[in-house]
Structure formats: structure tokens, C-alpha cells
């Protein structure tokens, strides 16, 4: 039976073997949030054991459980879960004892667990440069195996030790199935809970490897145990194949918000592409990408369907025959090519070919003063390539407004390729009063802001206008136009397409000012969104395979409703 929010009782469980230096500060953070804590000392050495035992404090609801012999991380967590369940707790947040995880993410993790009590809520790491290279590669290989074992991409990271368990389901898995006791525990219990129908929800968490951190990972023993675990899970997947296939089929047709769709690229995956490019060149890199892209094309039913639906519309308007699966694969591969070009463009701009800015002078002519402007881009073509050249063309700083979840991982990649470039990405979730003031100050200084016009932010799905697009009404975000009216600045559009031996960035003036009369606000917003939709359609028909919105673009968000426009502070207007 699915638990209700009223049954939600949370505690924290912390396994520790010889990690105690920052454990006290971790406990303080949890106690400050009135979260009861179970610490399991997993056979630590005497000095560490004494330090861990000193944290016992019944007044603060902190209990230390001492295991005289090491049982491994999984064994310690199993003991902690059983103690928590016996004490009446329904959920447990797992926190590692070595201080790797940014506890500023704790509130978001718990809030998500409270809203989704039936789900396993897990952090997805956003690493800095302190992660050991071998461990990063090993994690990536585990991700691939987990995707195979679940026939799904829903589990984005199975190794993060920062998660919230629904205890009843977790304990039933531990008691009824074979689950590893050491470093194989985190991945195996997540996969087995997924097999039993538990949704997996990921939230970003910054992860660092502190100086002097001592790992309990045993190179040969734990790698062997992880190999055995993946063998068990692979054959377990074959045994459950009919049920997993039925689950995939039942999930077909369920619309997803674009922000909830699994990210396909990872930090080390992109670094690998750059390494292949460095040694073998672009052609060899594209060849190496083909089997990977084909795999994602095969397993990505929802995205594949969205791609073909889009191509059907384009071809109908162009009077061409319907697309085949080969056209869908070409669409996928074009997106992979764009990703590679973006990496090369930031890391080695001279290798990407010319970027011709078309219409730049005419677009800039109306901007007589030194105030900044709002630039609306899209997921057509490669706006990143254009942005790399745009700042020097206009002679002003150019900043991208990006949803926080996507921005953290994206910034990690950019900073690794070109230190400092990520500083031009402004991470936002909501645009409240403070953010709006900060953006207005940037505009006054002559800086430019970039926002996507063809994505509906998850926080403002009710702020949309339905506009004709490729033969059918589609919802477009009102956010860019509300923000432009608030900032009282000129608006331009940019569509950067891969053409010839390089890229052409089509730069157009959109409006000197965005005016939203109080009594005709909805109509004005619809008019601006419709003008943008018309320009987007024009360029989509020009280069159909370069539009990269692999979701049902024409589906109206469930929360969307005819807006009764009020002069409210805009929220969540990033793309």
C-alpha cells in the first residue's frame, strides 16, 4: 500500500568505518533540522570508534550502534534501517560520513521525499575536479550496466550515498532477496527496488573529495563484488524481462515534462568524446558515437516517437513523404553531432569552422544606447556556438539564464574544457524580486541576457500561450516576454544553424520594447509568442534535423489554464 504524507516519519542513517573527522558537523546539521540520527560504527579502529561513540546523545535523538566486526557499508545500512523501522520511522535519509555531499541539498531531498513518499529519492552527483579519474570512469560503466539491467534510463546514478529510502520497501528487498553487503549495496538495492515498481527521483547534489579523505573501497575485493553484482542483476533482468517490457509498454504515451527526461550525456562521456577527437579527429569521433547513439535510439521510445511526430509535421508542410526510422536515427545522430560540435567549439574554437553572423548590424541598429538586451534563442541548431562568437561581435558580456538542475552539470563540463566560461551561465529556478533586480542591474550595465523561447519551465507551466506551429497549436512559454517587459529592454532572436563548412547565426530584431497593457495582457503575450513561433517554424523548415526537443512539444501542460493575468512577479521563466 502506498504510504501517505501523514505517515511520513523521517530519520537519518549514517554508516561509518573510521570516518569521524567531519561526522560531528554532519550530525549537527541533521539535529538542527530535528532529524533523529542513527550512526552505525562498522567495526572502526579504537580511536575512531571512541570519537564516533562520543556522538551518542539521547537528548538530541542521536543513537550510535557499534558493530564489533566490519560488515561492509550495506551490512551497516541494513542494521540502521532495521533499527529505524523498529523505532517507528517510515523513511530514512542516508548520509555518508566522510563529508563528500553538500548538505545544502538536504532540504530539497527531504521535501521531494515528503511529496513522493512511495519513491526512492537519490542525489545525482555534480562533481568538481577532486574526483579521482579511475572512480569517475568506473561510475560511468556502472551507469551503463544499470541501464541494461533495468531496460530503462530512469536511474541516472545508482552509486550516490545521499538518498531517502521508503523503509518498508527497502527492508522487504533486503530480507527477501540477495543484496550485496559492501560497496555493491547502493546500486543493487536501487535496481531491485526499481524492479519492484518504486519510482526513482534524482536531485543534483554537489560532491567533493575532501583532502586527506580515506576511502574504504577495496580495489580488488569490491571490484570483484561489483562484477558479481552486475552478473546477478543481468540474469535477474532476463528472468524479469516480460515484466520489465510490460512496464515499458505501459509507460508509453505518458507525457513527460522536458525537465524530467533523463539526461543522456555525462561528464566523463563527453570527456571521452573530446579525447577521441584529440587523437583521431572528428570523423573517427562521429564513427565511435554511432553505436552509442543507436542504443539510445532503440531504448528511447518516448523520444523516438516525439522525433518522428515532429518530422511527420515538417515533411507534410514541405510536401515530402513521411519519415522512416532511418530519418529518426538521423535526427538523433544530428543531436549527437551538435553535442560534439559544442564541446569542440568551447575547447578549441579554431577547429569548429567559421561562424557567420547574418543580420547582425541591422539587428543592432535599433539599440542606440548602451543598455543591454534580451536575446531569445531556441533548441534549434547550436546557440552555444553562436554565443561563443556573439560576445565579441556585440562587445558586451552575454549571460545565459538556465534552469538550476541543468546548469550545474553543464557548468561542470564547460569549466573543465575552458575555465571561466561557466561564469556566464546564471543559475535560476524562480525569478523572484531579488533575481529580477539583479538582472535589471545587468541590463543597465549594458550586458545581454539569453533565454530559450521553446521550452516551458517546470515552475511556470500555467503561463503559456497556444500558437500555431507546424500545422497545430502548441504551447509556448510567456516567460521571455514577461521578463523583457519587466526589464524594459530591447528583444532580439538568434537561430544558429549548421550550414556549409561552419555555422550561420541568424540574428534578428524582435521588439524595441515589450508592452503588456493591463486589460489586454493575455492577448499581447499571445501575439509575442506567436511571432516567435512563426520565426522558429521558418528555421525548422530550413534545417529540420537540427531541432532538438525530443518530447511531445504539442502537449499542453496539465497545469496550464487560461491565465487571468495579474501584475505578479514572474516565476520560473528560464528555458
Walk me through the topology.
Layout: E1 10-16, H1 23-32, E2 37-42, H2 46-53, E3 62-67, H3 72-86, E4 91-94, H4 106-115, E5 120-127, H5 133-150, E6 163-166, H6 167-176, H7 185-195, E7 200-207, H8 219-239, H9 241-251, H10 267-280, H11 282-299, H12 301-317, H13 325-347, E8 355-358, H14 360-364, E9 373-377, H15 383-394, E10 398-403, H16 404-417, E11 425-428, H17 433-444, E12 448-452, E13 464-469, E14 472-477, H18 479-487, E15 491-499, E16 502-511, H19 521-542
Parallel strand pairs: 1-2, 1-4, 2-3, 5-7, 8-16, 9-12, 9-15, 10-11, 10-12
Antiparallel strand pairs: 4-6, 5-6, 13-14, 15-16
Helix pairs in contact: 3-6, 5-7, 5-8, 10-11, 11-13, 12-13
Question: What is the radius of gyration computed over CA atoms, rounded to a whole number of angstroms?
Answer: 25 Å
Q: Which structural class fits the helix and strand makeup?
A: alpha/beta
Mean pLDDT, to the nearest integer, reads 78
Number of strands: 16
Provide the low-confidence segments as ranges.
Answer: 1-6, 257-265, 561-575
The side-by-side strand order for the widest beta sheet comes to 3-2-1-4-6-5-7
Helix coverage percent of residues?
40-55%
Beta-strand portion reads 15-25%
Distance between the termini: 37 Å
What is the 3D shape?
Answer: globular
What is the count of DSSP helices, taking H or I runs of 4+ residues? 19
Major sheet: size, sense and barrel closure? 7 strands, mixed
